[in-house]
UniProtKB/TrEMBL annotation:
One of its GO terms (molecular function) is DNA-binding transcription factor activity. Keywords: Membrane, Transmembrane, Transmembrane helix. The keyword Membrane applies. The chain crosses the membrane at residues 219-237, 243-266. Gene3D superfamilies: Winged helix-like DNA-binding domain superfamily/Winged helix DNA-binding domain. This is HTH marR-type domain-containing protein. Pfam families: HTH_24. It comes from the Archaea. InterPro entries: HTH-Siroheme_Decarb (IPR050684), HTH-type_ArnR (IPR053515), WH-like_DNA-bd_sf (IPR036388), WH_DNA-bd_sf (IPR036390). The lineage of its organism: Archaea, Thermoproteota, Thermoprotei, Sulfolobales, Sulfolobaceae.
Length: 269
């Protein structure tokens, strides 16, 4: 038993040095937990500079532990999944047989699915609240991921015919490419109770329209910032008649948006 454990440890150390390649291990663990990720996301998630991450990624690619998916988005290779599976077996004090390794590889492969499912539901939700159109520039900021990562997932969902690209004209008359939810995507949405509630939530739709937002959380944040910054001005100039009228409107707006937010939240539950 100890001999097998020692062999596993020695093999792992020969692939990625435990003592001198901590960042490489951090990158492997990060991608394993988060799914396909960009350099910026890895750098932020591992608390390292982009330069250091790029150098470590280059070494991991040379070792065939990660692969470049598209743009600057990277994922674990089959070999990388095997290495992490062996490490999991070592930390669990078990020695993986061939069947265990195959099972572990399958499990690690399926670990990408939660990430895909999460982004799929989030993108569908954003689309439903925007009349079926996905605002890409807002979506990646809302989800806290890079634009490249969003493009990766979006192209993946386009291959599954959940979204499709269309050309739309902006207010200047120029053609711009947009992603829209397909009928297949809507079928998925109508199977998820929370998405059905969001689709029929008139209070939420009105709140998002008023705040130019694509999510309930961002709408609340904008309202809090607006009222927090405007309240000192209203109070300071309260003696002036025009400002007093504005203050009354401000108060009505505060009450209205507060009630609207409450109703939007209650109808989402």
């Amino acid at each position: 038993m100890s001999y097998n454990v020692f062999d596993i440890l020695r093999e792992l150390d020969s692939i990625v040095d435990f003592a001198r390649a901590k960042l490489q291990w951090d990158i492997l663990f990060f991608i394993n937990s988060k799914g396909p990720s960009s350099v910026s996301e890895i750098a932020e998630g591992t608390n390292n500079s982009k330069k250091a991450v790029i150098d470590a990624i280059r070494k991991l690619i040379e070792k065939e532990l990660i692969i470049k998916i598209k743009y600057d988005v990277y994922d674990l290779s089959d070999k990388g999944k095997q290495v992490l599976n062996k490490l999991n077996s070592f930390t669990s004090n078990t020695v993986p047989s061939q069947n265990d390794a195959d099972h572990g590889n399958s499990t690690l492969s399926n670990m990408d699915n939660p990430s895909q499912n999460f982004y799929l539901l989030e993108l569908i939700k954003i689309s439903l609240l925007n009349n079926g159109i996905l605002p890409i520039d807002k979506a990646y900021r809302e989800l806290g991921i890079s634009k490249q990562t969003l493009k990766y997932y979006l192209e993946l969902f386009m291959q599954k015919k959940i979204f499709k690209k269309v050309n739309k004209k902006n207010f200047l008359g120029r053609n711009i490419q947009s992603a829209v939810l397909t009928s297949e995507g809507r079928k998925i949405a109508y199977r998820v109770p929370s998405l059905i509630k969001i689709r029929n939530n008139l209070f939420l739709r009105l709140l998002l329209k008023m705040t130019f937002s694509i999510s309930y959380e961002s709408a609340l944040l904008k309202l809090m910032v607006f009222f927090a910054l405007s309240s000192p001005i209203i109070i300071y100039y309260d003696g002036d008649a025009p400002i007093r009228m504005i203050g009354i409107l401000w108060l009505y707006m505060l009450v209205f948006t507060s009630l609207l937010s409450v109703f939007a939240y209650l109808t989402m539950r």
